[in-house]
Amino acid sequence: MSKKLNIGLVGFGCVGSGLYDVLNRSNLIDAKIKRIVVQDPKKERSIDQSYFSFDINDILNDPEINVVVELINDSASAFEIVSQALKKGKDVVTANKKMLAEYQAELIPLAKENKVSLLYEGAVAGSIPIIRNLEEYYNNDSLTSVEGILNGTTNYILTQSNSGIGYEEALKSAQELGFAEADPTLDVDGFDSKYKLVLLLKHAFGITVAPKEILNVGIRGISEKEVAYAGEKGYRIKLLSRAEKIGDQVVSFVAPHCISDQHSAYNVHNEFNAVVVEALFSDKQLFYGKGAGSHPTGSAVLSDVSALKFDYQYEYRKAQSNGGLKYTTDAFIKVYIGSKYVNAIEEVAFYSVEETFQSAAYSFQVGWVKLEVLFDLNLNARKDLSLLVLPDSIQTEKGLSELIEKNLFIYENQN
Ligand SMILES: NC(=O)c1ccc[n+]([C@@H]2O[C@H](COP(=O)([O-])OP(=O)(O)OC[C@H]3O[C@@H](n4cnc5c(N)ncnc54)[C@H](OP(=O)(O)O)[C@@H]3O)[C@@H](O)[C@H]2O)c1
Predict the structure, then answer these.
(1) pLDDT for residue 332
(2) Which atom of ligand 1 has the smallest separation from the CA of 77?
(3) Given this model, what pLDDT does residue 3 score?
(4) What pLDDT, in 10s, does the model give residues 85-120?
(5) Who's near 291: CB < 8 A, 6+ residues apart?
(6) Averaged over 388-407, what is the pLDDT?
(7) What pLDDT is stored for residue 295 in this prediction?
């Protein structure tokens, strides 16, 4: 028999109020919100004031509340709330990717020890059901790569950039439309995309990686020069979160990519998200949908709540049976690096160079660079260098030297 769900909701902002709406409009789920805890007593609320409290203990200490839905915008406080709820034997649903990425090593065992569920479909790509699919559907097929457009703000800005609008103007328009925060750092520097990637790595490959170990390069450096370079080659620029299996290792990073019309995410525009999953037998599959927003994310949260009726839990089976897969930064990436200053490009330690362009106003170089070199460049903090990752871009040192040898052979035979 399915159990009765009494929800204590923490946070009543964009997603919290979205959950309230979708729960009330869905007559499929027998669950009720008993109490809502928020922060600001002066704020006007759109629903009956009697729901609200400002003390988290009103949820944590209420024995009738068996589900805590955490939807606040502060990862440190969220960690405290979620940990306490799990310790008190309450199931937890959250959409807080930053908290999950930072504290997964603590929270996942805590849920297990207390024999409760910790579900978070809404944390990755909003309404797209990717976590449960990685957990369940792809349980038997060997995944080779997972990549996606996981941040609607940057995809909106890049969609504008690809059609000739400058970064500052596109960012302003994203802020006016409510897609971007006043401080857009987490989005535009690729942190939000990285937190989601950390969760994909866990569910696709069973590996636990701390956010600081993953390279994230955002989109502030994308100028009309990069858009023109990409356009000339028939590419569009997209901020991709990537995780690719090479042998018994997984390479993973977030960066602006040039993608061709052959790429499944080429036509994913504006605030939409997409995840492309590639597996040994099923080949490539595209998941597409709204990656954020009140109702789309509320709907993903509701789906988790509804799964609790049947005591659904993630089993993290790939963490137990991934054949010893390890995360590595020991890989080479094919990139375009552009700058107004030739000296700045010369500072980058390319392993091999395939194309160089220099003029008084702008220069760029295309070639293979070690991932660790890109880490050391600290590209989000630099105004003098722009990065684009090119298609078919990840190699091990062995793979790359074979590729270079093969290309030299073709080149020599052609001349
Ligand atoms: N927005 C999206 O489309 C989206 C999509 C996917 C995931 N998420 C994630 O969902 C979570 C919520 O995002 P949101 O956009 O709904 O945030 P939001 O609109 O800024 O709302 C945040 C809510 O949290 C409350 N709050 C903040 N700190 C609190 C605390 N310590 N105790 C109790 N309540 C507290 C605020 O209270 P007051 O109302 O009193 O200020 C507010 O109701 C975040 O983790 C976010 O990353 C959001």
Answers:
(1) 97
(2) 31
(3) 80
(4) 999 999 999 999 999 999 999 999 999 999 999 999
(5) 125, 126, 127, 128, 149, 150, 151, 152, 155, 271, 272, 273
(6) 88
(7) 94
Q: Does ligand 1 lie within 6 Å of residue 9's CB atom?
A: no
What mean pLDDT do residues 156-181 have? 89
Task: Spot the catalytic one: 90, 196, 238, 318.
Answer: 196
| Most ligand 1 atoms within 8 A of CB, residue of 10, 39, 187, 299 to mutate | 39
pLDDT higher than threshold 50 for residue 415: no
The least confident of 35-49, 138-152, 193-207, 225-239 is 138-152
Active site residue 196: yes
Helical packing angle, 75-87 and 97-113, nearest 10°: 10
Q: Which atom of ligand 1 is nearest to the CA of 99?
A: 45
The closest residue, in CA terms, to atom 8 on ligand 1 is 95
Q: How far apart are the CA of 86 and the centre of ligand 1, in A?
A: 20
Over residues 361-385, mean pLDDT: 96
Q: Where are the beta strands (DSSP E) in 159-292?
A: 215-216, 236-246, 249-259, 272-279, 283-290
Dist. CA 78 → ligand 1 center (Å): 10
Q: Calculate Rg over the CA atoms of the chain.
A: 23
Does the CB atom of residue 96 touch ligand 1 within 6 A?
yes
Residue 117 in tokens: 């569920």
Position 409 confidence tier, pLDDT thresholds 50, 70, 90? low
Determine the Cα–Cα distance for residues 27 and 220; give it in Å rounded to an integer.
44
- Is residue 329 over pLDDT 50? yes
Query: Rounded to the nearest 5°, which phi and psi values hold at 286?
Result: -110, 130
Q: Are 338 and 385 in contact (CB under 8 A)?
A: yes
199 alpha carbon – ligand 1 mean position (Å): 19
* Residues constituting the chain: 415
Domain architecture of the chain: domains with CATH: 5-131+295-320 (3.40.50.720), 139-290+324-402 (3.30.360.10)
CB of 58 closer than 6 A to ligand 1?
A: no
Q: What is the pTM of this model?
A: 0.96
Ligand 1 within 6 A of 48 CB? no
Q: Rounded to an integer, what distance in angstroms lies between the CA atom of residue 23 and that of residue 29?
A: 8
- C-alpha distances in angstroms, 135 versus 131, 181, 202, 313? 6, 32, 10, 10
